[in-house]
Amino acid sequence: QCAAVCPTGALVVKNDKSKVWEALDDKSAKVSVQIAPAVRVAIGKEFGLTGGDNAIGRIVAALRRMGFDEIYDTSTGADLTVLEESGEFIKRLEAGDTDMPLFTSCCPAWVNYCEKNYPELLPNVSTCRSPMQMFASVIKEHGRTSSRRPVHVAVMPCTAKKFEAARDEFKIEDIPNVDYVITTQELIQMIKESGIVFTDLEPEAVDMPFGTMTGAGLIFGVTGGVTEAVLRRLSSDKSNTSLMSIAYQGARGMEGVKETTVMYGDRELKVAIVSGLKNTSDLIERIKAGEHYDFVEVMACPGGCVSGAGQPFASSEEKATRGKGLYSADRLTNIKRSEENPLMMSLYNGILKGRVHELLHVHYAAGEEEE
Ligand code: SF4
Predict the structure, then answer these.
(1) pLDDT (tens digit, 9 = 90+) per residue, 284-323?
(2) Which CATH superfamily groups domain 1-361?
(3) Ligand 1 atom 6: residue of nearest CA
(4) ipTM associated with this complex
(5) What is the Å distance from ligand 1's center to 306 Cα?
(6) Where exactly are the structural domains of the chain?
(7) Among 15, 166, 199, 285, which lies 20 to 30 A Cα-Cα from 123?
């Protein structure tokens, strides 16, 4: 086993490749895997493809050859996050909650930073689990119906996700919902160790029953993506023109701080999108000094997950190209709003029935209990 240093957590992190290989060799284990949005646009260059190309089909084909039993796309988990986070936001707005903003909670490095530096803000951090953890709850529940032991692996753009997976909040009877997290770089090493010629692979689709996702979930991998996905959900106008206008509302672009205002009914909402922890602390100081925001998206990595520390090295320009790759993948999806993902309805009527809070939400220390 080798180790790497997590720049966000400043901690030594384990490389779990060998444990994943062991699970794949274990006939009594049923091994599922989910792939985060940002991974698909960062992996190809290593194998000679053009940077920013969407390589999800080849990643799926490679994982299948490596022996994974079920392969899913974290964008599906992001659709759950959009629905839950929008619901939480609307509830706060309708309750006339003056204790705004609502901070997003998808980035574990940000949650960790908030816990350490601004614990008083934890009640303002969304109770939503990250897409990885929401989806892992669903996949693990589904896996319990199998006669084989469910093992779940997540391919993620950062090492912070390893620490998130190991948190007690995401364990059931001491077993984590995500058993192993491997980074994009570790996946590249595993593909090479398998002798798979990545560029020779014919692209394949992810599996059912959790194989439908939307463009809204896909864009989570770049700064502004969560906000844009939530705005698509909040907008009462479901036309293509409205989608276009949301895209030009100021959420896109790799700038570290973006601000926009949107109308929700007759209320004007102030939204901030920050990436990079220095930008985040600057914004928090402004909020503490009295500046009002209703919704704040925070990603610890400048530019969002496309720039994660577990991704292959890239210049700023290449990171921006990865972001464009996600927007282009979004354009190619036929469903662009999370609430239109047909899988969501069956999840809420099935696995999640009566268990939404238990499986999709979390209360971090010092966070307030809410129903
Ligand atoms: Fe991980 Fe960076 Fe994405 Fe946060 S922004 S989830 S640290 S890759």
Answers:
(1) 999 999 999 999 999 999 999 999 999 999 999 999 999 9
(2) Fe-only Hydrogenase (Larger Subunit); Chain L, domain 3 (3.40.950.10)
(3) 107
(4) 0.99
(5) 8
(6) 1-361
(7) 166
